[in-house]
Amino acid sequence: MIDRTIDAAWKLESAKIIAGLTRLVRDVGLAEELAQEALVAALEQWPHQGIPDNPGAWLMTIARRRAVDHIRRARRQERTAEHLAHELRRLPEEAGDGDHGGDHDDGDDGERDRDHDGAHERDDTLRLMFLTCHPVLPPPARVALTLKLLGGLSAAEIARAFLVPEPAIVRRIAEAKRTLAEHGARFELPDRTELPDRLSSVLEVIYLIFNEGYTAAFGDDLIRPGLCLEALRLGTMLADAMPGEAEAHGLVALMEIQTSRMAARTGPSGEPVPLHEQDRTRWDQLRIRRGFAAMLRAREAGGEPGPYVLQAAIAVCHAQARTAEETDWARIATLYRALARLTPTPVVRLNQAVAVGMAEGPQAGLDLVGALAADPALQHYHLLPSVRGDLLLRLGRHREARQEFRRAASLARNAAERAFLLRRAAGIAADEPAGATLGQAVRDFLDRPDLSPQTRRSYTQTLHRLCLALGEATPLAELTADQVARAATTAWGRTAARTWNRHLSAIRSFAAWAELGDLAAGLRRREAPAAATPAAGPVSLAGLWDRADLPLRERTLWTLLHESAAPVTTVLALNVEDLDLDDRRARVGRTWVTWRSRTARLLPELIAGRTSGPLFLSDRRPAPARAPAPADLCPHTGRRRLSYERAEHLFKQATRRLDPAGNGYTLSRLRARETPPGDP
């Protein structure tokens, strides 16, 4: 019971706590660690002392006190005494480590204080939302960090939701925090000039979370309701904090109406039920009314309709139709045209083709789909052949429709969708094509005993992609050079000449073996460009050795790697107690690492009185929930051993200007035994 209460309190309050701490310490990573310390205190004290009257206030109080203690210890210059005093005055007097707090009637002044604190909390949460969705982060990192800090989900819960390994989520979140710190991302609301782009980034993250829950990309289940509801909670939080933003209300309206259909979207065995076949009496009318109310707020906010308002308007059209036959497809097609003008993405245009096919007839929709077939963004998108199959079926072209549904099934990564598409293909009555199919011919070709393993792997890559693009069930006799040319151009049109020519050779070999003539007649070999200028050698890194702006840790690590020529993992595994400063060497397992005078001058300053523990340390102490092995923890500072990934990232950042490609160098470039300038 206590554990469930703590878990519920954390999920409800963690966003406000971390947001408030971030405003105080100006470091989202540190803020999360301090919030985790408050959670640990709750886990330790509540089972013995009981649950506080106001769990959220208790957690916030303890977390703030930890933050103030940290600021005092660090003696940060930017935190003036007046600011600290102000924060201390705001701490509830009655809340101590063992106190339980409660609500007190302080009259009008107390009410105003609570209103003021509530406004601060809303602003802080909004700032945190803009920070976790900062454009410097890639979308997967924004999603993971938002769910962690604003959703209160653990890394394990996020990993289960997206079917990825937990360590990958942990690394993604850690890298996101480092990126925010390195770019100096501020904990503040964007100004008017930045607001449209920054708000768009936040809306995109929330909608990505919702879509992954509404139609799961991977796994066995079509729907993951937890993600949908979390996205809806985040969207509502954003709309409440920004009542004048029509797009925020539009997104809430869209998600409410979409969520209303969840119970009707799957059958008894979890199979998908298409929209026109759904039992509309199972749609949640309360959510539909909420969606309509959010849509009214979007209209009251004014302005030109944005992408989310337009999508919400389309959802409203579906929700207003009592039966599938009453759907106003002409109105929906018009809305999709407006949406395609704003966001002409391939997926929007595919949805537009569906609406046009319903409003103007299947041939009109098929014409639009045909124009999308060559778009590289849709080459692995299973809904493209699925939509095409629907339109072909309505036109009476049954055999082609069945092939498209089979191709869609081969591209679908969700088991429920794959099974549904295969059932649709099996339910179409049509004659099987005479002769061999592309899939069977490819398998026979690759089973030849005269192919070497390397050649077989290379051919498999090419021909597997060709089967996905054209469909395994396509009869060989109906395969044309134009079809192959379109598929190859879509799949490899932007690759380097060497890669293009390798795929072209595989296609020609297959065509010759199958006696299909020149299937590659529409394709031409490419001339490889002249060899690129070699990257600068280790001597070009000389400018690093005397850069005073670099931290001592980085200068020491890079110099030691350069002078010792030891592997990066070996150097990062060094411990202070293993160093022999007089003989300029250290033992790691059975390996000796030696260095020269420049490293010898830097090491004493780096050690700075430490007698044991890792030589190279991370920037911060680990969170309680992510305690490292004792051997990787410094007994003097509490910080963990510097990771390989972090060390590599720092070096790439520092050498980006030296690299002609602009990517930065890897640490392996430092292993060349060339003496730095001025070193004996």
Condensed summary:
Helix content is 58%, strand content 1%.
Our count of helices gives: 27
In what range is the share of β-strand residues?
under 5%
Helix and strand succession? HHHHHHHHHHHHHHHHHHHHHHHHHEEEHH
| Distance N to C terminus | 68 Å
What is the approximate shape? globular
Sheet with most strands: 3 strands, antiparallel
Q: What number is the mean pLDDT? A: 81
Helix content: 55-70%
Task: Give the domain tally.
Answer: 4
Uncertain runs with pLDDT below 50, 5 residues or more? 76-81, 92-116, 531-539, 673-680
Strand adjacency order, main sheet: 1-2-3
Please give the number of β-strands: 3
Counting helices, strands and paired strands, the structural category is mainly alpha
**What is the radius of gyration?**
30 Å
